[in-house]
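Reply to dn_fold:

You asked what the input looked like. This is it:
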Amino acid sequence: MDLSLLLENLKNPSLLFFVLGILSVYLKSDLEIPPSSSKFISLYLLLCIGFKGGQELSHETLSVNILYCLLFGVLLAAVIPVYTFFILKKKFNVYDAAAVAAAYGSVSAVTFVTATNYLELKGMQFNGYMVAVMALMESPAIIAGLLLFSLYGNQSNKGHNKEILRHSVTNGSVLLIMGSLVVGYFTSTAQAEGIKPFTNDIFKGFLSIFLLDMGIVSGKKLSDLFHRGWYPFAFGLLVPLLNGCVVAFLSHFVTDDVSNRFIFSILAASASYIAVPAAMKIALPQANPGIYLPMALGITFPVNITIGFPIYYCICVI
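and this is what came back:
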């Protein structure tokens, strides 16, 4: 079952376009995405993720249990980047440590979708508000990454914590995804249907172009990952498994629903290769996408869907 999931995801066009981008570099092709188009696509992806999360949240009746779940998700997204940053800073520069920490504190929408398929194969369903939890976990991780960079990457910023926090919260990428979530929450279903072709129908197409661009960028700097030796490979393998197992256990204190527990473990274990790279491309361009993208997409993603899923699920049902 897990092997079939891996094989199915290897056929994912978005993933294949990412590989095509890397391949084009090694073939010395002149293929490229214009910088202005690339920035537009980054903003578009952030807008759609936030808007769809707000829509899902608007369909739920807020309860204490839902609020606990939302709070737990935000807490995870804020805490994971902090401890991973200090682990990464031992081997990476501050730019790359902040970007990788943000990626691993954030979530992977594709891993999330794969996890829902895993639950369906077991005849189980999760609550719709977990989509909103996923969307809410994007921004705290990005904010945490930018805050950590501001605190440790620029000594002149020390003593100006209020300004650092303001900049992190009002950063264009963060503001767009959170603002889109609020817009999605207050938009009626009928009105949302009017822009569905923009927010839903063409999303995967733009995602494919984005990952093609990221593949090209990563391919040009992929040697940087191998020059780091064993460290990024060990991190991309062990840290997600640790996060997933710990959160699978802790989620017992948040929700009684096994499916929701499993989703929480997946959200904690996954690493973003859409929202965070899109945000870092704008907010922290000094960070090397040849490091954080291959780690998230080439190491952590396949590890989760092959090894991680069965382990997290067993802990969740205990």
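Residues 92 and 228 are 8 Å apart (CA to CA).
Hope that clears it up.
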